[in-house]
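Lecture 7, part B: from sequences to assemblies.

Below are the input chains for today's worked example.
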Amino acid sequence: MDKLITLDRFILEQERLFPHATGTFTGLIQNIAFAAKVISREVNKAGLVDILGYTGYKNVQGEEVQKLDVFARNVLYNALCHTGQLCVIATEEDENIVPIPEEYPQGKYVALFDPLDGSSNIDVNVSIGTIFSIYRRISKAGPGTVEDCLQKGTEQVCAGYIIYGSSTMLVYTTGAGVHGFTLDPSIGEFVLSHENMKIPLRGKIYSANEGNYKYWKKGTRKYIDYLKSSDNHLKKPFTLRYIGSLVADFHRNLLKGGIFLYPEDTKDPKKPFGKLRLLYEANPLAFIIENAGGKASTGYERILDIKPEDIHQRVPLIIGSREDVELYEEFARENVEK
Ligand code: AHG
Ligand code: MN
Ligand code: MN
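Predicted structure of the full complex, as structure tokens:
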């Protein structure tokens, strides 16, 4: 059997590339991986325990909160709040930033989470995920601040996701390639299975909720019509694959090539920029896709260049194979023409 490289071994070997590394960051990734194992265990028996269904209340997004959303958020918090690695946490589920209790040391990193992505799929046994994004603090000392959480995506030191699917995988980048680890439940370890992942320059798959078609702007509709025609650059219609869990759609396109689109739409005047969150979904996945040779934009600007103004800010997300995203951007010009 060729050598088994666990996540722990891999990140320790990566740490040796940085002579000044103190091991704090290594510990942070290991703690996130531990939390992922706990969430994975619960996800994989969700049907057997009272972890399905709704909590009966809505989160700051105005969305019904699933029990597993809260469970995942609490597992991440409890795994990380006492470690001295973080000075502040922010999640899609928390209205405000989550301080590190004063009885614990205030660390040098900031962690942002979508604790459970694809909540609508929990009760129907379809793949779901957790997304994480790590920054260095910019505040000098003491408790972390909102400004620590509102840094541009280019400032990320690490981004990753866990997908709870047919297997549980953790995929992350620190800017030195994108690497995938598959959980081997028999030993309880994430094992390197996809080293240095690269997305094909262009694909044959598109992922979008076509139910929103009539709410899209003209250029967006024309792009989708182009993909579905036989005289596009493939000379045959693209394949539509849409799971409704961003992490699952993203992961498939990362492996096979293709484009995921959640454009702005006119469906809800309160959400003119679409549904996805800049801090917890767009930025981490944009950091990953760029390190895998792909591209992520709003259709008009690079996701990672956006200066966040609010911790729950939403953005249109067009992400995947570079040439596919660039072609969308050409069509999207018509959306903003006067
Ligand atoms: P979350 O469960 O964290 O709120 O994310 C759900 C998101 C994302 O996972 C997915 O791509 C999108 O919602 C699906 O939205 P629609 O159901 O509107 O297509
Ligand atoms: Mn999500
Ligand atoms: Mn979520």
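Note for the exam: The domain at 205-336 is CATH 3.40.190.80 (D-Maltodextrin-Binding Protein; domain 2). Keep this in mind when comparing with the next example.
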